[in-house]
C-alpha cells in the first residue's frame, strides 16, 4: 500500500462513500465534501480519523464493520446522524455519544466494546433499534428507559446480564429481543408489542408474562426459549394474532391445547422439552403449518391427520411403536 491512498475528485455533495481494506491514516482528507452515507469495511487506523476525512454536516449513516483500530475512543458530537452501525473487531475503549438528536438506529455487532455511556444520547432522540451482541459494560443501561420513542430493542449478550431494565415508558415499542438476562425487564405498561423474543432468561415470572400478554394482544411472534419454563403461560392462548410460537429448550411437560384454537397460529416449536403425550385428534381442526416436537418424551408417533398438510418434526423421541 502506498503512503497515501489516492481518491478521485468528488463533487461537493455525494450520497455514498465506501472504504474497504484501507488504512484510514493514509486517506487524503476530502475538504468540503459532504457525504450522506459513509461506510468502512475491514479498515485499519485510528477511529477518530474516520470522521476527519469528510464534512460531517450532512452525514446520515455511519457504518464501521469488521475494522481494526488502534484507538477505539470516539466522540461523535452534534452530528445529524440517523444511523450508527459499529462492528469493531478489536475495540477496547469508550464510545461517547453527545447530543445525537436525530439518531434513529444504533447498532452494535460482535464487538469487544467494553464501555458505552448511553446517557450521552439525547433523551429525545428517536432511537428505534439498539442491537447488541457484544461484551458491553455500561453504568447507564437504564437510560434506555428514557428513550420513550423506542420502537425496536434487541439486546443479546454473550454472558449473563445482571442489571434489570425498566421498559415502562415506551408506548411505541413493538419489538423486543433479549438474550442472557438474569431477569425479564419491567414491561408493565407496554401495549403495542408485536414481537417478543426471550432467550436464556434465568428468572421467569409467570404472573408478569401473563399480564403482559393480556395487554399486548397484537403479538404475532413469541419466543421464550431456554428459560426453564415448566408450564406454558396460560394467557398465550389469548393472543389471537399470534402466528409463530417458540418454546424450545425448556422443561415443559404438558401442552396447552387451547393454543390450537388460535386461528392465525401457523408454527409451534416445542423441541427439547419433556412432553410425553400429544393428542392426535387435536390437530384435525388447526391451521398449523408446522409443529416441531423433536427431542421430547413421546412414546407414540404423532400421525398426520388425513387431509392435513401440517409438517410434524418429531425425531429424537423414545418411541415404542
Span of the ends, CA to CA: 68 Å
Largest sheet geometry: 15 strands, parallel
CATH fold-level topology of the largest domain:
Leucine-rich repeat, LRR (right-handed beta-alpha superhelix)
Provide the succession of SSEs: EEEHEEEEEEEEEEHEEEEE
Q: Would you identify the CATH H-level superfamily of the largest domain? A: Ribonuclease Inhibitor
Indicate the percent of residues in helices: under 10%
What structural class do you assign from the helix and strand content? mainly beta
How many DSSP H or I helices? 2
What can you tell me about this protein's structure?
- With 321 residues, the protein is mainly beta.
- Helix content is 4%, strand content 28%.
- It folds into two domains: 1-150; 152-321, Leucine-rich repeat, LRR (right-handed beta-alpha superhelix), CATH 3.80.10.10.
- It has two helices and 18 strands.
- It has helices at residues 47-50, 206-215; strands at 13-20, 34-41, 44-45, 61-69, 74-77, 83-88, 94-98, 105-108, 115-116, 129-132, 152-161, 175-181, 195-199, 221-225, 244-246, 267-269, 290-292, 311-313.
- The model is unreliable at 1-7 (pLDDT under 50).
- The strands form two sheets. The protein has a 15-stranded parallel beta sheet that branches. A three-stranded parallel beta sheet has the order 5-7-9, with no helix packed on it.
- β13, α2 and β14 form a beta-alpha-beta unit.
Amino acid at each position: 500500500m502506498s503512503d497515501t491512498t489516492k481518491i478521485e475528485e468528488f463533487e461537493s455533495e455525494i450520497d455514498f462513500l465506501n472504504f474497504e481494506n484501507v488504512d484510514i491514516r493514509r486517506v487524503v482528507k476530502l475538504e468540503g465534501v459532504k457525504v450522506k452515507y459513509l461506510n468502512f469495511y475491514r479498515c485499519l487506523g485510528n477511529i477518530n480519523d474516520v470522521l476527519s476525512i469528510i464534512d460531517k454536516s450532512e452525514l446520515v449513516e455511519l457504518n464501521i464493520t469488521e475494522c481494526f483500530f488502534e484507538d477505539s475512543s470516539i466522540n461523535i458530537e452534534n452530528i445529524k446522524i440517523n444511523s450508527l452501525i459499529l462492528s469493531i473487531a478489536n475495540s477496547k475503549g469508550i464510545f461517547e455519544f453527545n447530543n445525537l438528536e436525530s439518531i434513529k438506529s444504533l447498532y452494535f455487532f460482535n464487538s469487544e466494546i467494553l464501555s458505552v455511556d448511553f446517557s450521552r444520547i439525547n433523551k429525545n432522540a428517536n432511537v428505534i433499534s439498539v442491537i447488541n451482541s457484544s461484551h458491553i459494560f455500561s453504568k447507564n443501561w437504564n437510560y434506555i428507559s428514557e428513550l420513550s420513542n423506542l420502537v425496536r430493542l434487541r439486546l443479546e449478550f454473550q454472558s449473563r446480564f445482571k442489571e434489570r431494565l425498566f421498559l415502562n415508558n415506551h408506548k411505541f415499542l413493538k419489538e423486543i429481543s433479549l438474550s442472557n438476562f438474569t431477569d425479564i425487564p419491567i414491561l408493565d405498561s407496554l401495549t403495542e408489542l408485536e414481537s417478543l423474543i426471550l432467550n436464556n432468561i434465568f428468572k421467569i415470572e409467570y404472573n408478569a408474562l401473563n399480564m403482559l400478554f393480556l395487554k399486548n394482544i397484537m403479538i404475532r411472534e413469541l419466543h421464550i426459549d431456554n428459560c426453564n419454563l415448566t408450564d406454558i403461560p396460560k394467557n398465550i392462548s389469548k393472543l389471537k394474532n399470534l402466528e409463530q410460537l417458540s418454546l424450545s429448550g425448556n422443561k415443559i411437560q404438558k401442552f396447552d391445547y387451547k393454543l390450537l384454537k388460535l386461528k392465525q397460529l401457523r408454527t409451534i416449536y416445542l423441541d427439547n422439552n419433556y412432553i410425553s403425550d400429544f393428542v392426535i385428534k387435536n390437530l384435525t381442526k388447526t391451521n398449523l403449518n408446522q409443529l416441531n416436537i423433536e427431542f421430547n418424551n413421546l412414546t407414540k408417533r404423532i400421525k398426520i391427520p388425513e387431509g392435513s398438510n401440517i409438517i410434524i418434526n418429531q425425531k429424537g423421541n423414545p418411541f415404542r411403536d
